[in-house]
Amino acid sequence: MQDFRKWAVKAAEWGVDYRARLREMPVRPPVQPGEIAAKIAPSPPEHAETFEQVFADFERDIVPGMTHWQHPRFFAYFPSNSAPASLIAEHLVNAIGAVCMLWQTSPAATELETRAVDWLRQAFGLPEVFQGCIQDTASTATLAAVLVMRERALNYEGNAKGLFDAPRLRVYCSAEAHSSIDRAIWFSGIGQDNLVRIPIKGPLRGADPEALRQLIHADLAAGYLPAGIIANVGATGVGATDPVAELAAIAKQFDLYLHVDAAWAGAAMICPELRHLWAGAEHADSIVVNAHKWLGAQTHCSVHFVRDPASLTRTLAAKPDYLHTLGLSEVVNYSEWGVPLGRQFRALKLWFVLRAYGLEGLRAMIRNHIAWSRQLCERLRTAPGFEIVTEPAYSLFSFRYAKPHADLDQLNLALVEAINADGRIYLTQTRVDGAVAIRFQVGQFECTEDDVMSAYDVITEIAARL
């Protein structure tokens, strides 16, 4: 491509301008399915087009159809932050274009990953026994953990012999657990029917330890082979958090592998006053925290801590001759710690973010988000026709519009859709004890108290129209 410098600079400047005008744009685009595709040529071009035309089409046809995840009033799902420092790091990573599968294919990338992950270990207050790597997403980290559970329970013979004649394994998780756990069970070959849901109890909607013990005893009596437990710390629906210390004690009692899914809320553990919420995580076998959610590093950046890296590499590593690092037997090759062979240089953005904002800057952001979420919750609690369904967990709570209506589920689904079509804020729904509730979470890197409080006016105004 000619004029690389010109267009690289223009793209960077466009990104700065885009971020500056986000508040003027609807969070979710007002488009219908197929509307964007209709603007794109059905066949690829035979000959090169000018980059002026390509860029113009991007601005005219693509950007208006994007949901703006970096919008300060994005209150849906969980944040997928791209802090400015992270964005700059990604520019550099993309320019270098390295594949960081082995130490020798990018020594600096490997060694920076080791150090940046250990910085986060220290920031979370985890013991030195934990090492880690950066996976693409929590789904991959959880799949890796489930595969280790499987191999550990089968004396590391599953990969070689398959599961055809193996004992029927069981894995346990809360009824609030994320769907990525179901998928890990499918992909591992353990099977959906062997993922056992633990009943929940208490205000944190955490797994009931005594119920778990009973489930394990029943499975042992039935001839099953329990393999592991997956604990929630801030589950996606409404932020459910399991009693990790009690689950860790059960894992030790029955010699089970314990994985902690702290994909979203684990970031909050940089705040010492919140660490009681995952007390016991120091006894886990593995933990996943998405730095690309609340900490500002761009997707993909899931930090996967492991107590025993050897169990991970024994399960996942393949070492053909062409991947050997000749003359160096002690180097770390992080492709052996996950599913993909090819890996991006993910550590640079984490290093940039930690240095550019510092732990205190990140703590201040998280503490603000939690405080603002609670303030909004209290305002909605007293608003006519509204009720709080689940109390704030970290920076997430859920509510319901509860005016007399023949079908409250449909009313609240209609409210969510009307709010999102309006475009000023973006929310999502969930189900709590079978009934529809509306989620509200604060986590966008650059949102302000005014952004959060503006949601009250939007929610109440649109509800009044229904």
What are the SSEs and their pairings?
Layout: H1 4-20, H2 51-62, H3 84-96, H4 107-124, E1 131-135, H5 138-153, H6 158-161, E2 169-174, H7 179-188, E3 195-198, E4 200-201, E5 206-207, H8 209-221, E6 225-232, H9 244-254, E7 257-261, E8 286-290, E9 302-306, H10 309-316, H11 347-381, E10 386-393, E11 396-401, H12 408-422, E12 428-432, E13 435-441, H13 449-465
Parallel strand pairs: 2-3, 2-6, 6-7, 7-8
Antiparallel strand pairs: 1-9, 4-5, 8-9, 10-11, 11-13, 12-13
Helix pairs in contact: 3-11, 4-11, 5-7, 5-10, 8-9, 11-13
Short description:
This protein is of the alpha/beta class and 466 residues long. It is built from 13 helices and 13 strands.
Describe this structure in words.
The mean pLDDT is 94. Helices cover 41% and strands 15% of the residues. It contains 13 helices and 13 strands. The protein is globular, with a radius of gyration of 24 Å. The strands form three sheets. It has a seven-stranded mixed β-sheet with strand order 1-9-8-7-6-2-3, sandwiched between helices. The longest helix is centred in the C-terminal third of the chain and has 35 residues, at 347-381. It starts with a helix and ends with a helix. β2, α7 and β3 form a beta-alpha-beta unit. It is α/β, with parallel strands linked by helices and 466 residues long. Among the domains are: 4-82, dopa decarboxylase, N-terminal domain; 98-344, Aspartate Aminotransferase, domain 2 (3-Layer(aba) Sandwich), CATH 3.40.640. The chain has helices at residues 4-20, 51-62, 84-96, 107-124, 138-153, 158-161, 179-188, 209-221, 244-254, 309-316, 347-381, 408-422, 449-465; strands at residues 131-135, 169-174, 195-198, 200-201, 206-207, 225-232, 257-261, 286-290, 302-306, 386-393, 396-401, 428-432, 435-441.
